[in-house]
Amino acid sequence: MGIFSKLTTFYLSNRIKSINNNKGNAIKDQTSLLIDLLNIGKNTNYGIKYNFGEAKDYNTFKDLVPVVEYEDLTSDINKILIGEKKVLWPDNFKWFAKSSGTTNDKSKFIPVSIDSLNMNHYKVGQDLLAQYLNHNKESKIFDGYALALGGSQQITPYSPNSGIYTGDISAVLLKNLPFWSRVYRTPSIDIALNPEWENKIDTMAAVTSKQNITSISGVPTWTIVLIKKVLDLTKSKNILDVWPNLELFIHGAVSFDPYRQLFKELIPKKDMNYLETYNASEGFFAFQDTFESNAMLLMTNHGIFYEFEDLQSGEVLPLENVEVDKQYALIISTYSGLWRYKVGDTILFKSVNPYRVVVTGRTKQFINAFGEEVIVQNSDKAISNACEKTNSSFYNYTAAPLYISSDKKGSHEWIIEFIKEPEDRKVFTKVLDDELMKLNSDYEAKRYKNIAIGPPRINFVKSGFFDYWLKSKKKLGGQHKIPRLSNQRNYIEEMKKHITRFL
C-alpha cells in the first residue's frame, strides 16, 4: 500500500467515532441540527414568510412551516435559477441537481449548496468508506481505482450567463469532489460527464478495461451494461479476468434484490462485497453499515433533519416517535433550503436502536386499482424470486393495471426485458403471480379464485427495449429510471407503441 493510500485509510479510520456517535446520539443530534437550520434560514424570504425566528423547538417549527412537495416550491426555485438571492437559503447557488424522479416530462431542479455537499453528501460518503474499511481490515480498495458512473451537466437554460449549472446529482458531486477522492476515481471528468450516454459507455469500457478497478459505484442497471461492454471488448467470459482485484460494489437508486443473482454471475467472487446506499438528489440519507442486514443506517448528524409521515394515519412525526415495521413517507429539511420537503420515497424502519431503514417504494409508484395495494418492494421481490426459481434473469420491468371491461376481468399488465429469458413463459407467469400472492395479502385476496383480478399478463420483450424507449424520450443514462409501477396506464401505453420490434 502506497503512502497516499495509507494516509487516506488512516484519515477515514478516524471517522468511526463519528459513526458510533451517529448511532448513539441520533435524537440529540437531530434537535441541535434543527435549531441550526432555523437560525441560518430565518432571514431568507422563506424564513421570514413562515416566521422561522419564532420556531424555538420542533413543535413550533411543525406548527409554523407547512409540509411541501416540489410543485409547492417551483416558483421559489425558479427565482434562484435566474440568480435571485436569499430565497430559500442565504448562500448563492451554483449547482442544481436535475431529476425527474422517474421519467416524467417535467424536470425537477433541486438546489445543492456547498454546505450540503460538505456536510451531507461527502461526509456520508467518507463515513461509508470508513465503515467498510473498519469491517475489512485487509482491504486493498485504495491500491486501485474506484469506477463511478456519472451523469452530465449543463448551464441552466433559465439564465445562460449566470454561471449556474444543472445536472444529475452524480455530475454535481463529481465536479466538486475533494482532492483526495479525485486521486482514486476513474474515468476522467470529461469522460464521466459526457452527455452522449452511448459514447460514454464505450469510452468508459475502453479506458477502464486497462485499469486496476477495485470498486464500482452506480445504478445496477447501468453497471450491468458497462460490465457487459467490457466483457465484449476484452473477449472475456469473466469480469475478474479483467478486474481481478474488484472487491466492492456500492449501489443505490433502485432495489438490488432483482439483480443480486445476476451480479453473482457477472462477478463470481465468493468474498465480493455489496453495499446499499440511500442517496438521492436531495441528499445522502443512509447506507448499509453491516453485512448482516441490508437495512441502512440513517445518518442523523449529517446536515438533514428528518420527519416521517405515517402512511396510515397521515400524522407527521419526528425521529424519536417512529416505530419498527411501519411505512412512512420521508420528509426532510436541509442545508440547501428544502424545508419540510416530501422526497417522494416510502421507507420502513427495521430498528430504532440504532435507526436503520429500508426503502420500500415511491409515494406515487404503486398499483391499487382493485384494492390490492402492490408497492415496488412487493414487485421487486416477486420478480427476483420468480427469476431465481425459473433460472432466468431480467434487466428491467414496468407494470400497470388492466382495468375491468365488459368481457374481461381486471389484471396487471407487465413488460419485462430479460437478460436470460425463462424456458417456459407460462411457468414464469405462474411463479410471478404466486410470489406476489405470498408477499401481499391484499393481492392474494383479490386473486382468490380469479374473482376480483385475473392472472398477470406479461409482454416478454427482447434486449434493448427499455433503453430504446428512454432514448426516444431523450432520457437515456444519468438518473433516469423506468417507472416500476404505475396506477395509471400512461407509461405502459406509451411504451407499447414501440414494442412490436422487440417481441
Question: What attributes characterize this protein structure?
Answer:
21 strands; 503 residues; Rossmann fold; alpha/beta
Overall description:
With 503 residues, this protein is an alpha/beta fold. Among the domains are: 139-152 and 170-287, 3-Layer(aba) Sandwich (Rossmann fold); 366-502. The protein has helices at residues 3-13, 16-24, 26-41, 45-49, 58-64, 70-81, 114-135, 169-175, 179-182, 189-192, 197-208, 220-234, 239-242, 260-266, 376-389, 425-439, 441-447, 465-472, 490-496, and strands at 95-99, 108-112, 145-148, 153-155, 165-167, 185-186, 213-218, 248-251, 273-280, 283-287, 296-298, 304-310, 316-318, 327-334, 341-352, 355-362, 366-367, 374-375, 393-402, 411-420, 457-461. Strands 6-3-7-8-9-10-11-16-15-14-12-13 form a twelve-stranded mixed beta sheet, sandwiched between helices. The chain has a four-stranded mixed beta sheet with strand order 2-1-5-4. A hairpin with a 2-residue loop joins strand 15 (341-352) and strand 16. The termini are far apart.
